[in-house]
Amino acid sequence: MPECPVCGGTVDLKGDTVEGELIACAECGSELEVTGVNPFTLAEAPKEEEDWGE
Amino acid sequence: MPECPVCGGTVDLKGDTVEGELIACAECGSELEVTGVNPFTLAEAPKEEEDWGE
Amino acid sequence: MIIVKLGGGREINVEGVIKDLAELDQKFLILHGANAVRDEIAEKLGKPTRVVTSVSGYSSVFSDKDAIDAIMMGYSGIKNKRIVELCQRNGINAVGLSGIDGKLIQGERNKGIRVRKGEKVMILRDYSGKPKRVNKELLQLLLDHGYVPVICIPITDENNVAINSENDDIVNVLQEALRADTILSLIEAPGYLENRDDENSLIQTITAGELKAREDQVEGRMKRKMLALRKLIDNGAKTVVISDGRVEHPIKGALAGKGTTIK
Amino acid sequence: MIIVKLGGGREINVEGVIKDLAELDQKFLILHGANAVRDEIAEKLGKPTRVVTSVSGYSSVFSDKDAIDAIMMGYSGIKNKRIVELCQRNGINAVGLSGIDGKLIQGERNKGIRVRKGEKVMILRDYSGKPKRVNKELLQLLLDHGYVPVICIPITDENNVAINSENDDIVNVLQEALRADTILSLIEAPGYLENRDDENSLIQTITAGELKAREDQVEGRMKRKMLALRKLIDNGAKTVVISDGRVEHPIKGALAGKGTTIK
């Protein structure tokens, strides 16, 4: 299982996790983005943006 | 009936003559374009061009 | 200098706008939309414009590759060139440019919005972003040589990729560069309406301060539009007029104060 | 100065062309076609490209209003802007322009061709014409400031109306203005073939004189193409190369003399 990029703790991912999914780190609560599967890779989720404009 | 713009002779047009049609003047043989119907109007046909390019 | 912002709806009287502008003795440039014709093209090409709604309730166009193609066909293709043609036929020496031409409008790609997909919350990224700066040298070069820039999306992102963006934001980066004294925004309504559905609830004049107060009362798209308008005043515009683009003389009307004037 | 003429077929390796050009240390500009993507758009919009045949046997595209719309969407819309985007992503500061922008390519409307309609012979007029001159000042202004013009139809007629025209003729008016020393024409074939259907019948080099002789043996479109090529040499081009635009390095190949060189 991958490590949380913020606190280093192990992040437990369910089987149906897909790329682009957002999850919260159980240990530090940071919002993480699943950037890859097989193997799972994680990154801190980008800052909140309401919309794109048009 | 309209006059030939080149030689001034009367041009005899059939009933089914339409705008954009090309006809030859019976008297001077010039190529004329029917530029209007009701009433018929005539003009000398533009110089021959083979094609438009593309 | 006047910045003319044309809405992209079907009912905008573009011919009337151009005929009015042809009589103007001031320098001007045009920023135009084309959402109506873009949607039509996208529909007919079997890739209709898609709108996505973020978890915080904002809806916006999903700009994937097909959507950028439709923008290039609709905005910088047919709408831009038919406006340039109309200008030329009325003695205005227009040059049509999208934001990627000569990196005219440079922006930054959006980082992604959050959308719900069944039980999951997903990050959704596309080809859209916010404009940050303008190639002022290119604009000035054309203006100084008697050309009238006719501008539209797409703009270019930090990696020179073509992206969608919002004309309300683009007019702001244009204003930052050009410091125009007057900005005319022509829309498919008499002006800024107190009540959207009542064309008689037109607000004639509004100060930047009043605008700020109204901004605090609303949410979402309307809030963003008001913020963008207020920024124009902050960036040196003396007069911003939102006026009806459907009438016979839209520019003359706006210059005569018809619609909503922000001072 | 090099003029790069890109064919409008699907198989032209545009990315390969742009990557080669990014390494070039000479000034250049691009004139491109887009007939393949235009035909596809016209088809999907339910107004397929129509070809008419004149009484003297010439066939050409019938450019009515819908056809010009498709040209604005296909040529000056998606093709032009995707090429500009590719250029920008490879460090080439491209500015995309159609012939009507700033009256870059000025022409004259065709007077009409003669077509048979049942028993009658009719004059058929449309929005097409021949290019006559170029706005050299605008081209020079952009080139001198480090921009690379990426040019396509429509062009403008004597009344500033947008019209269709032939790239073979447009490259000639560009050459008259710019007196480029090299012209590279990239097509969907190895070069000028003795026998159209035999890719091994490539003619490596041909002098203007030999071209004139061949011109006299053929009729129609091929004759016009050869005349246009010969005119390039008359207008000061030292080297004209017709080369394969489908290979991995189309420009490098052409500059190395691959294809047919006209001297």
TL;DR?
The complex is a heterotetramer, with 2 copies of chain A (54 residues) and 2 copies of chain C (263 residues). Chain A is mainly beta and 54 residues long.
Describe, in plain words, how this protein is organized in 3D:
The complex is a heterotetramer, with 2 copies of chain A (54 residues) and 2 copies of chain C (263 residues). Chain A is an all-beta fold. Chain A has one domain (1-47): Rubrerythrin, domain 2. Chain A is built from no helices and 3 strands. A 3-stranded antiparallel beta sheet of chain A has the order 1-2-3, with no helix packed on it. Chain A is globular, with a radius of gyration of 12 Å. The model of chain A has no long low-confidence stretch (mean pLDDT 89). Chain C has helices at residues 14-22, 35-44, 65-89, 136-144, 167-178, 208-217, 220-234, 250-255; strands at 2-6, 28-32, 51-53, 59-61, 94-98, 105-109, 113-117, 120-124, 129-134, 148-152, 155-156, 162-163, 182-187, 205-206, 239-244, 260-262. An 8-stranded mixed beta sheet of chain C has the order 5-10-2-1-13-15-16-14, sandwiched between helices. A two-stranded antiparallel sheet of chain C has the order 3-4. A two-stranded antiparallel ribbon of chain C has the order 6-9. By secondary structure, chain C is an alpha/beta fold. In chain C, helix 2 packs across helix 3, helix 5 (167-178) runs parallel beside helix 7 and helix 6 packs antiparallel against helix 7 (220-234). In chain C, a hairpin with a 5-residue loop joins strand 3 (51-53) and strand 4. Chain C has one domain (2-33, 69-106, 130-262): 3-Layer(aba) Sandwich (Carbamate kinase), CATH 3.40.1160. At the C-D interface, helix 3, strand 5 and helix 4 of C face helix 3, strand 5 and helix 4 of D.
